[in-house]
Design brief:
Layout: H1 2-13, H2 15-53, E1 57-61, E2 80-81, H3 83-89, E3 94-100, E4 102-103, E5 107-109, E6 124-128, H4 131-134, E7 137-142, E8 150-154, H5 155-160, E9 168-172, E10 177-188, E11 196-200, H6 202-209, E12 215-216, E13 218-223, H7 229-240, E14 244-248, H8 249-296, H9 298-306, H10 311-350, H11 365-390, H12 394-398, H13 407-433, H14 437-474, H15 480-491, H16 493-531, E15 536-539, H17 548-555, E16 560-574, E17 580-589, H18 593-596, E18 601-604, E19 614-618, H19 619-625, E20 632-637, E21 642-651, E22 663-665, H20 666-672, E23 683-688, H21 693-703, E24 711-714, H22 715-758, H23 760-768, H24 773-811, H25 822-839, H26 841-848, H27 852-857
Parallel strand pairs: 6-11, 8-10, 17-22, 19-21
Antiparallel strand pairs: 1-13, 1-14, 2-12, 3-13, 4-6, 5-9, 7-10, 8-11, 9-10, 15-23, 15-24, 16-17, 16-20, 16-23, 18-21, 20-21
Helix pairs in contact: 1-10, 2-8, 2-10, 2-11, 2-22, 8-11, 8-16, 8-22, 10-11, 13-14, 13-24, 14-15, 14-16, 14-24, 15-24, 16-22, 16-24, 22-26, 24-25, 24-26
Amino acid sequence: MTVLRTSMRNFFAHKGRMALSAVAVLLSVAFVCGTLVFTDTMNTTFDKLFAATASDVTVSPKGASDTGETTADNGKPPVMPASVVDDVRKADGVKSAEGTVFSTSVTVVDADKDSLSPSGGGPTIVGNWNANDARTMKIASGSAPEGADQVMVDADTAGKHDLALGDRIGVITAVGTHRAKISGIVDFTVTNPGAAIFYLDTPTAQRALVGETGVFTNVNVTAASGFSDAALKKSVATALDGGFQVQTAKEVADANAEDVQEFMGVIKYAMLGFAGIAFLVGVFLIINTFSMLVAQRTREIGLMRAIGSSRRQVNRSVLVEALLLGLVGSVLGVGAGVGLAVGLMKLMGAMGMNLSTDDLTVAWSTPVVGLALGVVVTVLAAYLPARRAGKVSPMAALRDAGAPAGARAGVVRAVLGLLLTGAGGLALYLATAAAKASEGGLWLAAGVVLSLIGFVVVGPLLAGGVVRVLSAVLLRVFGPVGRMAERNALRNPRRTGATGAALMIGLALVACLSVVGSSMVASATEELDKSVGTDFIVQSDTGQLITPQAVDAVKAADGVERVTEYKWSKADFETPDGKTSKDTAITAADPTYAQDLRVETVAGDLADAYRPDSMSVHEEFAEDHGIRLGSQIAVDFADGATARLTVRAITSSDAVIDQGAMYTSIDTLATYVPADRIPLDMLVFASAKDGQEATAYQSLKKALDDYPQYTVRDQTDYKEALKDQIGQLLNMIYGLLALAIIVAVLGVVNTLALSVVERTREIGLMRAIGLSRRQLRRMIRLESVVIALFGALLGLGLGMGWGATAQQLLALEGLTVLEIPWATIGGVFIGSAFVGLFAALVPAFRAGRMNVLNAIATE
């Protein structure tokens, strides 16, 4: 009880000094809890939606997925004849059965030809208005579609795009473009997570989506009273006698939920990873805080020991303070996490994904995890300072000698740090020497972890040399004030090392990712210049296949000399060694693709692979299966017959573009796959007539004006798009790393603030002998800047090493260019100086306001 009272007294006596540490714990716990609440809420929202929209039993064609996805390689959903509905109605336990048709492989545009697809990445769904949808949707205005000229739209989409009754829209599918006017606006009775939904009447939906009437993509079955879903499923499956996929409402909902949870899992664990980095950075802040508090209470600890307190009690007293700090920070963090989750939901709403706070889900495990993490991390971080406090002897403490000098511990620390750093460097070297990326990846991971720990451990040793060099370059120009700032930074290398290490971690990751991102862009740019021989590339940025109508528009554009179509198909390969490769991708293209992409061959000529009944394979596949020029492979096309194709070329497996591709001609594909099952184009390449590049570029854009889902790019555009994509990904990662950097800045602020308190008497004496307030504030700011630059220098150096190693692994995949983004690295280094200045604002201000006489009188 005495230990608890002492700890409580000390905690509240130093509550101002504990505040920033508590904020660090709060931020880290808030990020963890916010992530958990946000992802749980997303899952709850989708679970409710899937449960509400699934019929008791759903019948689908064999080609449909478990989740009801309808995207097919030919752009049309898999269908079954309307007679199936009658067969289902005859099954026992069926109250009603209704055929539906819908597709997600669509684009919908308004009268101005602007896309109406959700900006947040949600699906665009076009289907027939049916009784099952009427359970979760209600007509808010107008009426359901009747006839080919009418369409109904969901209220969210109508609101976002200012659509009203009577407005005309176009539905673009593989079949063609169907135009209609809005006859009604329908509202969700459950939360719409961001889909855009359009309804046609049944015959019109069949013609627009499939190209024929009398077919359905699903049959929704309602159970009769007293009939379970499982019993109904069995009854319907028996009535259909195979050939169809039959699922209960739970099975459909679970399959949909599994897909969502898989996607959310990636987001969840990525965000938790960044929260973990913030926790790691916070550890240094807490260690520094308690180390300095223990040092400032040396005499107090000595008195406690002199009146009978044991080492264990002193140790326990410090740990109880850490426990209180962890509890306060964690409790506040849990609450802040819920607020963060709500903020993320609002942000997603602004991006097009609607999430209702009515579905806000705070599982019992969320606050438990937050509290446990915050408390455990704080107590563990305070263990070393607590242990050092317990080692203080009463007489040494009363003489203000403090803890033992620990010279031996310093030597052990330095040796251990150098060994870890050396081991990390060796692992990074082995990563660069690896023959396979998978092997090198393991060495890279080991090298990153070991070198990071090594730099953290050896930080105090590095602080002496690095700070002196930085001071010689930056601080000496400030005269005596600069020299005092240098001595302050060097006074306690362990403290400076820990403070710098907190900033080092975040900046090391920034530097590493910058090097990797820049190298990827530079490598891809070089490969494009070397390999791509076409002038223009037409593709969808959302992964949609290119409709035949759009391809025809490209071919009709002025100034275009040749157009190359490019398709993917799946097939089972039976190779000469008797082995079968299941679901292997085969690329079908026009013969002109050999001109559009200069692929290196190790045997034969790629142009020959486009001859009838011919193909190419890549080098690794050929070696694995004993394939040579002239070998024959039995290719069983997924949607067609089996062909025996002759290998006419073997391509290099080291290519960056189309790596591992195996080619055949579209004519060969068409010989063995029915016309209505031929896959749509993934890409279309176009080359301009000599001297007409500008004309062809503008003509292609105009030709695709009716198809906003596709983009025309020349090689310059393509490089810029690639750079922008990687840049957006990096900016998102930098934004998440900002949390760790904020915590690191709090660490610098806290270190300086506690350092000012620790040097109160010294500051008073300096002021008494003539140091002005302005000079005092400058001294503290310069000390902060040099500590921040010390951390930045270590972090940027370490990160560039990691990035260069990662690039060597990417070189095994063909990305051979190492690009150091010096502008980014320099900007981060200079920005670190401003971080140091910012962190010193409050400590410097407080130091400048000290009363000189009171400061001198401080013991």
